[in-house]
Design a protein that fits this description.
The structure is a homodimer. Chain A is mostly helical. Among the domains of chain A are: 54 residues; 53 residues, no CATH class. Helices cover 69% and strands 3% of the residues of chain A. Chain A is elongated, with a radius of gyration of 21 Å. The termini of chain A are far apart. At the A-B interface, helix 3, helix 5, helix 7, helix 8 and helix 9 of A face helix 3, helix 5, helix 7, helix 8 and helix 9 of B. Chains A, B: This is MerR family transcriptional regulator.
Chain lengths: 213, 213
């Protein structure tokens, strides 16, 4: 197909498509004449992946390039590629070194040990969890870790099991990794939205106003 | 305390503190002389809340003002204030009207009905959930809704129950609402980080590399 049809199919403008080709995150089309290139279904799929990572994942173009390079590099193990993607998608919390941070880091280490999770304490997600718990402590919510963290960890395990089952349907490496990256990025949006809905429901039942209906 | 100590206690610079006062999101200190104001613990706590909403929640200063106004307005019910906060914290996904979107909206309506959730179909979180499911469909992950959505909804219910128990410890209205807002914003970061950790653990067990240790 020509670039105009690729644009219509994906909702991405022609100048933006050309920009992605220049940035090296979208392969160039096959030249059919000096001024015309032909694109195929792999371009449609790649463009949708790029838009998901940029718009939903909030990644920069440079981060998208790194994730796509990792997906396409057969020498990297699945586990390593997932790690590369996670590094870019991890929620970015400011790192302030203080007493709240020290306590939070200890709580994260204890949680990981208690759950028997196979993760390095230096994992970016462990750091961002400690940053979130420290931020809670600083605004007077030190009880959160004690009262709610266990339920959150239970929920995270439920989701991770579903994610793994979802991803493991694929046997081809590129499909598997792409599925995991997409699932991580879009799964966050799904989960955040569902949490809001379940909260609205709980708030409505407890604080008495029927939302809508 | 003077503004310099307020700055040290909270890690927020003096010019930024003055900016928040000008923007009307931080109450001015008590004037003790024409050029000097005195601040107290309510300012410390408010500043930490502002930083949590800005840095962790990713809200704009205008959105922070609306949420704080809602917290401070006794004529608004708890349920309504939570709704105001949610409107600003909902993940912002592009709204594209297409066939994928139509299917996703139907799936969300079915999920809400099946779960018996008391939420309006026009709820911002219902819209962002539909946007996320539509984005998954567009990148070829239409199976997600069928295979994984139930586990995600189970997890969301677990968390909402924990959130409600956490918030309901408070009886004072302002504390209760502040707790809910903080919990919603920072709870997202906690949950996203935990989901990553549980994924790393699951990936490590399945794809064979021990992360760290």
């Amino acid at each position: 197909m020509r670039v105009g049809e690729l644009s219509r199919r994906t909702g991405v403008s022609v100048p933006t498509i050309k920009y992605y080709v220049r940035e090296g995150i979208l392969p160039a089309g096959q030249l059919t004449s000096p001024n015309q290139a032909s694109y195929d279904e792999t371009h449609v799929r790649r463009l949708r992946l790029i838009r998901a990572l940029l718009d939903v994942g909030g990644l920069s173009v440079a981060a998208v390039r790194e994730v796509l390079d990792a997906i396409g590099d057969p020498s990297r193990s699945v586990h390593k590629v997932l790690g590369a993607a996670h590094d870019h998608i991890a929620p970015g919390l400011g790192d302030v070194a203080d007493a709240a941070r020290d306590v939070a880091e200890r709580q994260v280490a204890e949680l990981i040990a208690a759950r028997g999770w196979h993760v390095d304490a230096g994992n970016p997600a462990a750091r961002s969890l400690a940053a979130a718990l420290a931020a809670l402590r600083r605004v007077g919510h030190e009880e959160f870790a004690e009262l709610s963290l266990g339920a959150y960890a239970d929920a995270a395990e439920t989701i991770a099991a579903a994610d793994l089952a979802y991803v493991a349907r694929h046997t081809a490496r590129e499909e598997l990794v792409e599925s995991a990256v997409i699932g991580t990025v879009l799964g966050d949006a799904v989960l955040t939205s569902l949490r809001r809905l379940a909260q609205v429901d709980a708030s409505s039942r407890t604080y008495g106003e029927r939302a809508g209906s």
